[in-house]
Write a structure and sequence with these properties.
Shape: globular
Radius of gyration: 20 Å
Largest sheet: 4 strands, antiparallel
Order of helices and strands: EEEEEEEEEE
Number of domains: 2
Structural class: mainly beta
Strand content: over 45%
Length: about 180
């Protein structure tokens, strides 16, 4: 199958009754409708129920190891801990846009996170991954299962990054769709 076009449509759905938690009262929720069209003219539709915040992204995680078979990685080989002690980096908050940028026939979004070194010596980064929180919620909202944090993207860097004491580095991931 060859894709010809992908459309993303944001819609807001009013709830039958308000939903209230310690975070506040919700009366409507966003959803993204996805329309995919292939070169032969057939089309398919999907719905992504999304919250207004990127709560699913836990972090970009950095490490100082590497996997012999990264395709089976479920964690970094040698994660660098979050902190200011020896061998640690201070993890900033991940930055995830609330919308997707469309430019011509492409659509993209960028995830980034800054890491500061207050450890007293240089820290070398050789591997990077994206960690998300996977949780399922039943359609009526009565049941949920939290599967915890899961590594969903893993990269071994072709050149290591050395972060000097007092320095920082920002890691960027750009996800692009080109129909």
């Amino acid at each position: 199958m060859e894709l010809r076009k992908i459309e993303l449509l944001e819609v807001w759905v009013r709830l039958v009754s308000p939903f209230e938690t310690s975070f506040g009262r919700t009366v409507e929720r966003p959803a993204i409708l996805v329309r995919v069209e292939e070169k032969g003219g057939e089309e398919g539709w999907a719905e992504v129920v999304a919250d207004s915040g990127p709560w699913y992204i836990v972090m970009i995680q950095v490490g100082s190891g590497q996997q012999s078979n990264p395709f089976n990685a479920n964690s970094l080989a040698a994660p660098i801990a979050n902190g200011s002690g020896q061998g640690q980096l201070v993890y900033g908050q991940p930055s995830v846009p609330s919308n997707i940028t469309v430019s011509g026939s492409s659509a993209y979004f960028i995830i980034s996170q800054t890491f500061n070194n207050s450890s007293g010596s240089a820290i070398t980064i050789t591997e990077v991954g994206i960690v998300v929180n996977i949780q399922t919620i039943s359609s009526n909202g009565a049941n949920s299962t939290n599967f915890g944090n899961v590594l969903v993207w893993y990269d071994v860097l072709s050149s290591s990054i050395s972060v000097p004491n007092g320095g920082s580095v920002t890691i960027y991931y750009t996800f692009t769709v080109n129909p």
